[in-house]
Predict the 3D structure of the following.
Amino acid sequence: MCGKKLMAPKVNSLDELIQEVHAAFEGDTVDVDYVEDLMTNYRSNPADWKKFAKFDRYRYTRNLVDEGNGKFNLMLLCWGEGQSSSVHDHSNSHCFMKILDGKLIETRYDWPENTQLSQEVDNSDVTEMQLKDRTILETEGVCYINDSLGLHRVENPSHTDPAVSLHLYCPPYDQCHMFDERTGRKTSCKITFWSRYGEKCRNV
């Protein structure tokens, strides 16, 4: 985006953040820095997001907060003690993540040389994925990733405390790829929600 850098306004609540994000996506371009600043300017307040925070004993959960205007969606991810995602891509979308409670570790990887689906890969093509970096994200921390920056895995390193993160994806997507860290093989994965607007989904 060219021209003078837009200054993101102060955000006093999750509702205000949602309003500002809607406004930010009214046009046809994405100002990544501006959206990241919006996420940073929101100070986590459990009173705002507690109704969306749904945990599962066996896996982390995706909880839809706002479907946006067709150009993004906003969701709360809840991480029980020791829970983690797989290594995954973002289907050519922008991904913004803010830590609302607890601590998460983001581990980034280079794309494997062979990106065929697992059933198409011969054993001779197996190669361990290459780690790029690992970042500890504390409460209020914000990070951004897209597929040009690599793949990542997110995990809650604590065995005593849960964690909660707010994710914005632009554009929304309902399918991505998971990668085996040991082999680089990928499989397709359908994106599902544990809850929508604070209500548990029937298919969970």
In short: The chain has three helices and 13 strands. Helices lie at 14-24, 32-41, 46-49. The chain has a mean pLDDT of 92.
